[in-house]
Each structure stands twice: as C-alpha cells, then as structure tokens.
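Protein data:
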Amino acid sequence: MSSRQPPLWHRALFGPMPLAYPLAAVCAGLYLLAVLFTAWLAGSPENLGRILWQPSQGILYALGTGGQVPFIQGRVWTVFTAPYLHGSLPHLALNLFSLLQVMPMVERTYGRLRAFVIYAIGGIAGAVASVLWGEVFSLGASGAIFGLLGAIVLYGARRGDAFGRALMTNAAFWAGLNFLYGLLNPGISNAGHFGGFLGGLAAAVLITRRIGPFQDPRRLAFTLASLALLALAFGLGNTTSRVWQFSTNDQSAATNSGNESAAAEVHMLRALVLAQRDDYEGALREVDLAIKGGRDDAVALNLRAWSLFKLGRAEEGLADAEAAVKAAPDEGAILDTRAHIYEALGRREEAIADYKAALRLIPNEPETQAGLKRLTGEN
C-alpha cells in the first residue's frame, strides 16, 4: 500500500482541515501578492507600513478588481477573482474573521463540498450583482460570506423546529443589520451583499435538491474550482506582463504593440505608483497619456486633478475633479480631492460640504479630517 499523501489541493477540499482555512489562505495570499507588487514598484522601504495597510489600487485592479468599469472593459473574468481580493488590511481582517465564524456552521450543516459550492456561487453572484447595479469598482469576500448566511437561513427554515427558527432568525438578523449598515455607508457594496445572499440561498436550494447535471456536488465543486483557477491564472498572467512593462519603463513595448488599451493601463499603473511616491509631475505626465489612450474614467480624472492640486495648479484641476465626482459621486477619495481644490480656490462652503460628504464614506481618512478641521474646527 502506498504511503504517498494526496496533493495539498485535494487535502484542502476533502481532508480534515476546516474549509475556512484554505479559503482564508487564498484571500490572504492574494493580498500579500498585491502588497509585494506594490512594494516592488514603489521601491521605497519607508512606505512599507502604508503599503501593508493598503496596497496600490492599480495593482489590485490588475489582479482582478471587479465592478462595472472592469466588466465593460472586457475583464469579465473579474467576477471570479474579485471575491478573493481586498482593498486594505482592515477589510481583509474583517472578512476573514467573518469567514472563520460562519463557514464552520455551513460546513457542518451541508457538508464540505456543498459549503464550498455555496461560498463560490455566493461570491460570483455578489460580483455580478455589483456589475448590474452599476458599482464602479468592487472587491472582497463579503458577497460570498452573505451567500453562507443565505444557506443558513434556508437550513433554519427547512428544519422548522425551535433550533431552526433561532438559527434562521439570528442569521437573518445579522444579514439585515449588515444590509442596514451598508445603506448608511454608500462606500460598501450593498448590491454585492444582496446578490451574494440570494446566490448562496439559490445554491443551497439547488444542491440539496440535487437538481440538474451537477447532482454530485463534487462535480460542481471541481467545475467552479477549475473556472476560478483559470480566471486567476489569466489575471495573474495579465498582471505580471503589465507590471513588467512598468518596471522596465519600456514605453515603446506597450505603445508600439498596437494595443492602445494595454498602453493606457500601463501608463495608469505608472501614474498611480508615481503619485504614491509623491512624484506628481511624473504622475501627471503618465495619467495624461493614460487618458489620451482611453482611460478617461473617474479614477484617472481624479488622479489628474489631485496631481494638479499638489503641483499648485488647483484651478486647472477643478474641471477634472468635478467630472470625476459626476462619474462616481459615492467615492470618498474623489470627493476629498474636489474638497481640497475648493479649499485652495477659497470656495469655503463648497469645500466644507465635500469634506463632510467624503467623511461619511471614508470616516477615518486623516487628510479629510484635517481639511474639515482647518475650515470649521470640527473633526
């Protein structure tokens, strides 16, 4: 008899290890990858703490951030990758804590493979809902976690006894509380939560009734895992090529390739990293090239406005700031940029209004808090 152990992926899916652990490891590993890419591009060790707290949004975009903008740009595979990416260390920590709390209950109730399928479908459904709802960008495991809650609600309803009702009530209350919190904080993907909840609920119904070609949950699990791995491989390959183009500073490689869209993405990545290094002249030059190449979305316009502001050219940046707010009115960082420009131009009341609106979306942003305090004395 062979003593050879099965491969790690097989043990993660079928072995005794709790399912939440490998899922958490994937999310944490991708976050670390984003941090390492950002640190490599920035080349500035003193910023390591800030990078660990929040990696470059450009790197996360290249890795597979979801939302309507990437989807329209043809990055359809991001509905698979977005549920495993996180925008900051607190975002990652909160979702991993929730995953470790909720997944064991679903795994005990439905079984290991069915729990994996519910989680995967909840994440995909949340990402698709975010696209359909028109959210500019979205990422995070919360849609998948809401899918797990949907499955718990279904189990409690089917069980029907006092324990089932208590389980259903608690899960529904927790989900409802988070929905309410999301409604009060527009920066949160409410559509992703709602879509994930419905996706998990539907997946639990289909799996437990053994409907369709995937009567064996292993077949559906392997299908979803294969699709996710293919999407992830495509995304990482895409990211690596773009980061390499950036790191070698080979503008002609992208520009002469005949792919203007790819060149614009390279310029945008350069602009984001240069701005992070406080090189606003370089960032302005690169973002101008990105916009000329077709990246005229809210993120690019906001970066050009902020670069102009930091270079003492606030009046020139105002038009871009206003266009960015019009395109993405619920993005706190974009409102903060316009607030700074209004303040620099002496438009005090408009600056105060934008600072307050930004703080409702990003309540712990130091620069926004400082801007409001300068004008009103409020925190």
Summary: The longest helix spans residues 217-247. The radius of gyration is 22 Å. Residues 210-215, 231-259 have pLDDT under 50 and may be disordered.
